[in-house]
Design goal:
heterotrimer; A alpha+beta (about 220); B alpha+beta (about 290); C alpha+beta (about 550); B: about 290 residues; alpha+beta; seven-stranded antiparallel sheet; four-stranded antiparallel sheet; about 35% strand; C: about 550 residues; six-stranded antiparallel sheet; five-stranded parallel sheet; 33 strands
Chain lengths: ~220, ~290, ~550
């Protein structure tokens, strides 16, 4: 069984829990006392990941660090449909990579602001908030045009990819870092869609969306 | 809010001990923070004696250590902080479960801690779940100038880190200080004793706090990490709710919000703040 | 857009989003003149614009859930109905009907030009100003600007564009620019048109924001905290027994079953109060009689009220008037709904047993439970298929409804026995129908060990009996009135019936709004607001729940 070095309130750990829940992959959570224990900086943990970061996964003899790398591995290995990380479609997988790098940006802005505001991490808070807003404006416009094309997800496929999962939690918890999503209506609608995915799992600050309506009986075929 | 935050001028608040940090957090180099609208520095000296200094007046303030936390007073310090006799029991696990900043006022955090009606919605599957949403009548009153809520009951699917099945849980709540609140619930393995969970709120400004989570439990099996995880999970679920409440300062005018019978402890708490003459971190009644 | 300088911003109409910003089952977050708004489209298409603040503890409604007919607050699960903003369910007190004073501040919404318009004031025009040539307007992308609205307006006026711009003033330093084209481009040019205009507007935004960044940042607008007052609009204040405050027309009248007529009642004046399942209204008939009828509306469905009226064989003029005299288009006076038959939503399973026209309140309950995904079964007893009222709506419930047609009294008894044999600790039963059926059900329920608190009856009679044995006299010291308060009546209700204006809020004894002074007599306190010394002093009383320990109580009114 996969082992996930995990902290329940970590955005990057949540991305893995979300992916594995969606893929219906069993895993064992190994709690790391991130705060106030700083266990991820301990010598014992650095033996597992010398950079002292979580998440880390261990799958048999295989160990991998870095949230976005782990998403790629999980999708490549455990998604029989091949849609979450579509290596058979060069243009699409290029888009996924492009937006995974965008997710590095949201981690370094929105999630940094959250760590500053919640746990007192040192960041130039005005700079990271402004950075988050710049990225959200771009993403909101991108998603708006996707909607006009009849598409629901970040990449151009008619199904979500790991790019959606990599960006979603940073966006969804932005208000904990003082970044409001009110100016970004298309972004807010996209977060509803992610929250309605089959296999969605919550974390503090990220709750399920209301279910979509079942078509009224009048629209069903009469029997 | 622009400009400098308002400094507290209420004697009722100034002449109290306020939490600043968990003892393991203290360093010799020192850290800065805010308390009651003023910037402070705090730390420990070589002899492991803690200190707190107001940076606006450049003066040291009285300090004390209690329950594993450093407390400071800007006014005339009372002889004692409130007592928690359970903390003296030798087999107790006494831990700080983390100090988390929240963009809300101290009284809002206290009221949220007192509230049970949100358990099925905010702590779904942990402290409550639909359809068991009813808050049955309980008793809330002032006792010895503290707010107490007794005979509280709520159905909980998983009541603590050590439990693995749902049960009707009895709770007692106590507010011994305008910005501190304690919860007593029976120890699963020994119902004659009670676990104590506390929230000691450091009012940094009127609309920002650092919430210090306190655990004083009887539990032989769960690790420190496990106990902390549970409390942090609960508190972190409340945090986005608190940050989405408006106004941030607690409105004391009973016509600004609509209490229901389930809010009896909050009703007593708000009237207590009014009687104490508190104006800091609240919106006084018209 | 030409500004009419005489209209204050507070009374002006502004767009707060595009039509597409309010899809089904979503809550759009907007802000106008410093005030946050929750904007959501109900399943029937109605667009709600509310203050973004739950009345309970001030949590934003935009983090709540749009459940189609109701909006659910994320904190305690309170439900608010579309159209009126009235609270219809409080999970912490599942057996209580929320006071009708618990009602969100609502603002009007008009959809025009592909945009959603609203106004915050009461003193301006009743709809957005007509813009010439916008019948076929094509809404472009809306863009947020971090700059003062006036600065943005000046720049837009200087911008050469075929688009018409509307500036939504969000706050002192923030606005949203909405834009429309007067003509809709061809389908294959729409995306490029949107992109072209979005790029142009982005360029304007870059310029304006650069300028704004060099100016001092203005203070955010402040919106005063409003006290929750009982509202005139849509929420009638006094809940008197005989007063009728609402005027409705009969929008539709049809035969729904043999001997049963259905009426759809549409408000003439203000929107109808949000119905709760189990509630009923007084209908004032043209012949002077007043009759009570249950609403069949599911929770929160307040577009129009739908009632069902059976022609009673010995009608004293009530049901026969409804059947023979009332016509579509007639105006009728009704009371606001009252609810003595509240639906809990916290049962593991809810069994609904309807005898004949007793179906009406239970149909409302069944549809509410069905929509919420809660477990229920509706047993509808009727003489025959032709006698089954609202058969189409029963059919829509699918497996949730079981019909029992043409059952003899013995067969009915046997059916009740089977139905009530399935009991578990967290289930509830609601029964409504003719007297003999209810008596049989009551006996059966007891025999199967159902606790009293889990079985709810509504006797389908038109006159309510008042048990005088626990009534008391209420005297008002200053006005000299002498009133009688019977069992089942509250002091608050009796005062209002007598025309005494009384403020209230929670109507549960928690908020203190309805507290008045006591001159003499001994109050029987049943509230949670007064503290022990106030209770001991006996000089005040919470009129919504408390009573008298003696036969006479004198109030300082």
């Amino acid at each position: 069984m996969i082992q996930l070095y995990n902290y329940d309130l970590s955005v990057n750990c949540y991305k893995q829990r979300l992916m594995m829940n969606i893929l219906d992959v069993e895993y064992e959570s190994i709690p790391v006392d991130f705060f106030p224990g700083w266990e991820h900086k301990s010598p014992e943990f650095k033996a597992i990941n010398p950079l002292g970061h979580i998440p880390v996964i261990v799958d048999g003899d295989y160990t991998l660090r870095d949230a976005h790398a782990i998403l790629i591995y999980l999708a490549a290995k455990y998604d029989p449909t091949g849609r979450w990380y579509p290596t058979d479609d060069p243009e699409l997988v290029g888009e996924v990579a492009q937006w995974m790098l965008f997710a590095e940006g949201t981690t370094n802005t929105a999630s940094a602001a959250r760590l500053h505001d919640n746990l007192g991490y040192e960041f130039d808070i005005d700079e990271v908030r402004a950075g988050a807003h710049r990225l959200f404006r771009v993403l909101d416009e991108h998603l708006w045009f996707r909607e006009r094309e009849g598409r629901d997800w970040i990449c151009s496929a008619q199904h979500p990819t790991i790019a959606d999962l990599a960006i979603f939690p940073d966006v969804m918890l932005s208000e904990e870092g003082g970044i409001s999503r009110r100016p970004y209506p298309a972004l807010r609608r996209w977060t509803d869609r992610v929250r309605r995915l089959h296999g969605f799992t919550p974390m503090p600050g990220i709750s399920p969306a209301s279910p979509l309506a079942v078509p009224s009986p009048a629209l069903r075929e009469s029997h | 809010m622009s400009g400098s935050p308002r400094a507290c001028a209420d004697p009722a608040i100034l002449n109290l001990w306020h939490p600043v940090a968990a003892i393991p957090e203290l360093t010799v180099a020192g850290d800065t923070s805010m308390l009651l609208g003023s910037r402070i520095a705090y730390g420990t000296n070589d002899g492991l004696e803690p200190w707190v200094r107001r940076l606006d007046t450049d003066a040291s303030v009285p300090v004390r250590i209690e329950f594993g936390f450093l407390w400071a007073c800007f006014g005339d310090p009372p002889d004692s902080l409130f007592e928690i006799p359970e903390a003296a029991e030798p087999d107790r696990r006494i831990l700080n479960a983390g100090s988390i900043k929240v963009a809300t006022s101290a009284p809002r955090a206290v009221e949220n801690f007192l509230d049970m009606g949100h358990f099925p919605y905010v702590h779904t599957g942990i402290l409550g779940e639909e359809p068991r949403t009813e808050v049955v009548e309980y008793r809330a009153a002032l006792e010895n100038d503290e707010v107490w809520a007794r005979d509280c009951q709520f159905y909980q699917p998983v009541a603590s880190a050590a439990a693995d099945a749902g049960q009707m849980t009895d709770y007692t709540y106590r507010v011994p200080h305008p910005y501190c609140v304690l919860l007593y619930k029976s120890v699963p393995t020994d119902p004659s004793r009670r676990d104590v969970i506390g929230l000691f709120v450091q009012a940094m400004t009127e609309e920002t706090i650092r919430a210090h989570n306190f655990i004083c439990m009887v539990d032989e099996t769960t690790s420190d990490t496990g106990l902390r995880r549970f409390q942090q999970m609960i508190f972190s679920q409340d945090k986005p709710i608190l940050e989405n409440q408006h106004p941030k300062r607690l409105p004391l005018d009973p016509r600004i919000e609509t209490p229901i019978r389930a809010d009896q402890s909050a009703i007593v708490y708000r009237r207590w703040l009014i009687d104490m003459g508190v104006t800091y971190a609240v919106i006084p009644a018209a | 857009m030409t500004d009419d300088n005489q209209i204050l911003d507070a009374d002006r109409w502004f767009p707060i989003g595009r039509t597409d910003d309010a899809p089904f089952r979503h809550v759009h977050q907007a802000k106008l003149l410093g005030r946050e708004l929750a904007v959501w489209r109900a399943d029937d298409g109605f667009v709600n614009v509310w203050d973004n603040r739950c009345l309970h503890r001030g949590v934003r409604l935009t983090v709540g859930m749009n459940e189609g007919v109701e909006l659910r607050c994320l904190y305690h699960g309170w439900r608010y109905a579309s159209r009126t903003g009235g609270c219809t369910y409080i999970p912490a007190h599942p057996a209580d009907a929320p006071a009708q004073t618990i009602c969100n501040r609502t603002f009007p919404a008009v959809e025009r030009d592909g945009l959603i318009w609203t106004t915050l004031g009461d003193n301006g025009p009743h709809e957005p100003p007509p813009e010439a040539g916008l019948d076929n307007a094509f809404a472009l992308r809306s863009l947020p600007f971090s700059a003062a609205p006036d600065l943005v307006r000046r720049h837009l006026e200087a911008t050469d564009s075929s688009a018409r711009f509307f500036v939504q003033p969000v706050d002192a330093h923030e606005c949203v620019v909405h834009s429309v084209l007067l003509e809709t481009p061809a389908a294959d040019e729409q995306i490029s048109t949107w992109r072209h205009h979005a790029d142009t507007l982005t360029g304007v935004r870059d310029e304006v924001e650069a300028i704004a960044a060099r100016l001092p940042t203005p203070e955010p607008l402040t919106v005063a905290l409003e006290r929750i007052e009982p509202r005139e609009q849509g929420v009638p204040m006094p809940r008197a027994r005989t007063d009728a405050q609402l005027r409705v027309t009969i929008a539709r009248k049809w035969t729904t079953a043999t001997g049963v007529v259905a009426l759809e009642l549409e408000s003439i004046d203000d929107p109808l109060p949000a119905p709760q399942p189990g509630s009923h209204i007084d209908v004032h008939l043209p012949n002077g009689l007043v009759r009570q009828y249950s609403l069949t509306n599911r929770s929160g469905d307040a577009a129009n009220y739908v009632i069902g009226v059976k022609l009673e064989p010995e009608s004293r003029g009530g049901s026969s008037c409804v059947h023979d005299v009332l016509r579509e288009g007639d105006v009728v006076a009704i009371s606001a709904p009252r609810n003595n038959f509240t639906l809990r939503r916290d049962a593991s399973h809810t069994t609904l047993i309807a005898g004949g026209i007793g179906l009406t309140p239970l149909l409302a309950m069944a549809e509410t439970l069905h929509d919420s995904g809660l477990s229920y079964t509706l047993h509808a007893f009727a003489q025959s298929t032709d006698h089954l009222a609202f058969a189409d709506r029963i059919a829509d419930l699918g497996e949730g409804a079981v019909t029992h047609l043409g059952a003899s009294p013995a067969e009915t008894g046997a059916a009740l026995d089977t139905i009530l044999a399935a009991r578990d600790d967290d289930s509830h039963v609601y029964i409504c129908g003719p007297g003999p059926m209810l008596d049989a059900a009551r006996t059966n329920a007891e025999a199967h060990g159902w606790p009293d608190a889990s079985v709810h009856f509504e006797y389908f009679r038109n006159d309510t009996e008042i048990d005088d044995s626990t009534s008391f006299t209420l005297s008002l010291a200053r006005s000299g009135l002498t009133l009688s308060v019977g069992a089942g009546e509250t002091i608050l209700e009796v005062l209002r019936s007598a025309g005494v204006a009384m403020p209230s809020s929670c109507e549960q004894g928690a908020c203190g709004t309805c507290v008045v002074g006591v001159v003499s007599g001994t109050p029987l306190h049943q509230d949670v607001y007064l503290n022990p010394s106030e209770r001991a002093a006996g000089d005040r009383i919470a009129t919504c729940v408390s009573r008298s320990a003696d036969t006479e109580l004198v109030l300082d009114l």
